[in-house]
Amino acid sequence: MKGNAGLGRVVLCGFVLGLLVHCIGSNGDILPIQKRGAVKTEDTRAGGKVVMAGSTAMEKLADILAESFMEDYPNVTVTVEFTGSSAGIESVLQGRADIGNASRGLREEEIAAGAVENVVAIDGIAVITHFSNRVSHLTLPQLTEIYAGRIRNWRELGGADEPIVVVGREAGSGTRSTFEELLGMADQCAYANEIDSSGAVMARVAATPGAIGYVSADIPDATVQVMALDDRLPTPSQVQDGSYPLRRPFVMVTDGSVIQQSASVREFFAYIWSDEGKRLIESAGLAAAFPDVTWKPEHTRWKRSVYEAYIILHRRGRLQGRMAQRHGGIRSAGSFYDLCILLDRCGFYDNAVYDG
Predict the structure, then answer these.
(1) DSSP readout, 23-50?
(2) Ramachandran category for residue 58: left, alpha or beta (phi over 0 → left; psi -120 to 50 → alpha)
(3) What's the rounded Cα separation, in Å, for the pair 192 and 236?
(4) Which of 48-52, 98-102, 261-265 is least confident?
(5) Separation of alpha carbons 40 and 35, rounded Å
(6) Which residues have C-beta within 8 Å of that of residue 53, sequence separation ≥ 6?
């Protein structure tokens, strides 16, 4: 019986390799395979585009990723519009954008409409004040009391006798939605000013003595003071380990899963989830996030290992064999997803779910 089992494994491996060889072109790429009626077709080598729209809090990250990606893939054009999280998601669902940048999780109605949440980074929400403020730290309950309008003067917190000017984002902002939810006071904040972008919030706080506001942790500069919350600052390490209390996902939303997108969009996500993408995300002061693979109990060991191995190799920015490396990533990122479709069609990982 052991001999037959060994022979079975050899035949299986031979079949998998045969499929790979059959699908690998002369230049080392896996030839594209479309998922029935679902995958958007496009060849990145012939040129393509990626249209992003959404969160102003993700401006720094989106610009860094777009510029670096276009340097490595000059035939693909990436454009970014900063319209707010909700507007970005709406643009994706209406077909005006490929990716909706959102600084919050998806709502039930958005998921029901076909939106898929692809988390690319974890961000802290920094609480900022005018640089002259003598109060340098708050507890979470104190912050809640300020935004509820029950603490109105910095003197109550050991600071100067100066009114607190409460600044926040406009309705529809992902940053505002997440901030209020984390404080447990959705639609209950007593704002003096509601501002339509993260940069404008920082500018208002910097120009207004007594002001307090909130922005993405990668945005503040020397013109404002970043407050410690419960003795924690929104550094990448304290955001990642969960010790900083105000943290949220940075999400790139697609209409359907990543695997259903055009080659350019798939390539862009592969770049984000590579080692180079991780480096770029961390250079923006954020904690990188990667997709997970979820398995059902009925999966056999070899079904899991085939798919999981490619996920792991892809995350490390390389695939073995004839698929050559390029700029720290795989030669054709789209080929990775095409391979997954191929293996799925052949029944190698029935019911496997790729949460990417």
Answers:
(1) HB-TTSPBPP---TTTSPP--GGG-EEE
(2) alpha
(3) 30
(4) 261-265
(5) 9
(6) 80, 81, 82, 83, 87, 88, 91, 92, 96, 97, 99, 100, 101
| Helix-then-strand count for the chain, H and E | 12, 16
Q: Please check whether residue 247 is in contact with residue 232, taking contact to mean a CB–CB distance below 8 angstroms.
A: no
| Separation of alpha carbons 211 and 165, rounded Å | 4
Q: Which residues contact 18 (CB under 8 A, 6 or more apart)?
A: none
318 backbone dihedrals φ, ψ, rounded to 5°: -155, 150
Instruction: Give the whole-angstrom CA distance, residue 85 versus residue 311.
Output: 29
Handedness of CA 198, 199, 205, 208 (dihedral sign): negative
First and final CA of the chain: distance in angstroms?
40
- pLDDT, tens only, 44-75: 444 699 999 999 889 999 999 999 999 999 99
Per-residue pLDDT tens digits for 271-305: 898 888 989 998 888 888 866 444 333 433 333 44
Strand 325-326 with 224-226, pairing? unpaired
Measured from the Cβ of residue 185, the count of other Cβ atoms closer than 10 Å reads: 14
Does residue 131 register a pLDDT over 60? yes
